[in-house]
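[recover] target loaded
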């Protein structure tokens, strides 16, 4: 499990640790880690050109001491001093090691640098970058050299991943002591590149994490496996109420995701056209063609997926009411979410609910602005879970899962190739199958997102994928998780994305 923390949480832990150590110890640990990552990236340090962007706080101090270490090894280091003040001891150390200084207007060196160390601001930042920081951050991101962000990319809010205005786009972020939430959640995660953690001895002093990201071993431990005593009913029967005469594909894809993710049985219930399609694609599914909008005669299931391609007419509304009147967990997606937005009384039930909106659907559900949701995903998914009293999985470039209690997880698998029609329907089938197999809404959502993201990577392998291809890749993704292949790790590295 990868855990991440807000800036305040990190500060609290650092204060406790710092009080037990001689002054400056933590900064030297940070600088040693930074210099080592930079040296590794450069290959040859001697003769390389390194530019330090130095802000007025300790983030700049880290950069200066790292610059000192690189200068001692023969790098040509220039510090661009951007703040109204500079970490004095760090600056002296750099100059003593042969480094040079430039003012914030003298930025010619940036474009010629092999490596730019972004030490403008770290966890002490507040609000959008001011000038000249904003200009320098953008210039660094656009320069041909490698960009290494110190602790967090400047301009990214360490606690939330928000980016208001300019931010430094890093190749690698070297973060101190613990991951910051903003490095795992978009848009911040996009700017962070690959994240390297430097151990500065903070771990024993950290509180409960702000968010967690399940790792391969966590998912392997949670995924259900059939035992000797299993039969198809005990493994978990999933009901799927999806598809309509207009949208037959959504039903096919949701059923496919569910079958591939190990449901003991899938009972599909729908109208004539999607029934014909599901029957043609999945002879394994047990099908009920509905004559009226009710699932009363469908047979016993352990969980439902409701909504993909269902439509939002009166028939769909009544069918949704019938599914939600059951006493088993229900995953609501797509048109099911629109129906909930139109009639919140549908959500009055005691059995568990998992909602799987993208930002637009969440906006419809909560009345928040879609752009605001995209900008501050974690806050919005938490607020929705608390307000609605259900588990919410927010889809998009980073998938987040939140509980009404405020607990939240971020998914670190996935691929931007997944941004294509129908992949969400497959996810609903996968997570639904996990619900039917007995996982809680929180675990089904988190493991479902993990497996779906991995299946997306396998299906894409660097080229466009289709939603059906993602469903096909689900067993291979599960095998990757349970066999311990390293494909599932090395995350969250966008640069290594397949
Ligand atoms: N506290 C510690 O024990 C350690 C801190 N470390 C480093 O210290 C950093 C935190 O240092 P600080 O608390 O000094 O804070 P920062 O260096 O992150 O930033 C604070 C400075 O930036 C300015 N600033 C804030 N928001 C700004 C904005 N939007 N635009 C322009 N300037 C802005 C402030 O006026 C202040 O001078 C960490 O991110 C990490 O890099 C590490 O050395 C590890 C140990
Ligand atoms: N840029 C992206 N990077 C990674 N995953 C993405 C991105 N955009 C979308 N996805 C994923 O693709 C899926 C799309 O689902 P959804 O929006 O419901 O589409 P559809 O309704 O067409 O199935 C979700 O799992 C989402 O998290
Ligand atoms: K920084």
């Amino acid at each position: 499990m990868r855990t991440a923390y807000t800036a305040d949480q990190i500060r609290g832990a650092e204060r406790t640790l710092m009080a037990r150590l001689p002054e400056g110890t933590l900064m030297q640990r940070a600088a040693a880690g930074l210099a080592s990552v930079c040296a590794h990236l450069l290959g040859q340090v001697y003769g390389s050109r390194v530019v330090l962007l130095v802000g007025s706080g300790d983030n700049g101090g880290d950069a200066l001491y790292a610059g000192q270490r690189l200068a001692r090894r023969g790098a040509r280091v220039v510090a661009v001093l951007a703040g109204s003040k500079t970490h004095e001891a760090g600056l002296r150390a750099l100059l003593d090691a042969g480094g040079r200084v430039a003012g914030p207007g003298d930025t010619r060196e940036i474009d010629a640098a092999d490596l730019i160390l972004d030490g403008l601001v770290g966890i002490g930042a507040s609000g959008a970058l001011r000038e000249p920081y904003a200009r320098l951050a953008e210039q660094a991101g656009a320069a041909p050299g490698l960009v290494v962000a110190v602790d967090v990319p400047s301009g990214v809010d360490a606690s939330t991943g928000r980016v208001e205005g300019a931010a430094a786009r890093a190749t690698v972020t070297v973060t101190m002591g613990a991951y910051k939430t903003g490095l795992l959640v978009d848009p911040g995660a996009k700017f962070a590149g690959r994240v390297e953690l430097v151990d500065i001895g903070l771990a024993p002093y950290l509180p409960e994490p702000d968010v967690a990201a399940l790792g391969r071993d966590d998912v392997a431990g949670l995924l259900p496996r059939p035992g000797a005593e299993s039969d198809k009913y005990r493994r978990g029967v999933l009901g799927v109420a999806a598809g309509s005469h207009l949208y037959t594909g959504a039903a096919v894809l949701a059923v496919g995701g569910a079958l591939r993710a190990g449901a003991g049985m899938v009972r599909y219930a729908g109208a004539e056209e999607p029934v014909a399609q599901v029957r043609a694609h999945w002879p394994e599914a047990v099908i009920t063609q509905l004559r009226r909008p009710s699932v009363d005669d469908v047979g016993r299931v352990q969980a439902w997926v409701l909504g993909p391609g269902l439509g939002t007419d009166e028939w769909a509304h009544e069918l949704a009411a019938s599914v939600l009147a059951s006493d088993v967990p229900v995953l609501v997606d797509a048109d099911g979410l629109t129906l909930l937005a139109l009639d919140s009384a549908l959500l009055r039930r005691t059995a568990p609910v998992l909602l799987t909106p993208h930002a637009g659907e969440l906006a419809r559900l909560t009345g928040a602005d879609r752009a605001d949701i995209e900008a501050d995903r974690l806050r919005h998914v938490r607020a929705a879970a608390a307000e609605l009293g259900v588990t919410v999985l927010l889809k998009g470039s980073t998938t987040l899962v939140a509980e009404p209690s405020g607990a939240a997880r971020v998914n670190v698998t996935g691929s931007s190739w997944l941004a294509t029609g129908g992949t969400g329907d497959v996810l609903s089938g996968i997570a639904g199958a996990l619900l039917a197999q007995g996982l809680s809404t929180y675990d089904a959502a988190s493991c479902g997102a993990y497996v779906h993201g991995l299946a997306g990577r396998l299906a894409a392998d660097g080229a466009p994928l289709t939603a059906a291809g993602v469903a096909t890749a689900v067993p291979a993704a599960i095998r990757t998780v349970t066999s311990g292949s390293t494909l599932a790790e090395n995350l969250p590295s966008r640069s290594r994305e397949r």
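[recover] notes: Residues 2-210 form a domain with the Rossmann fold fold (CATH 3.40.50.10260).
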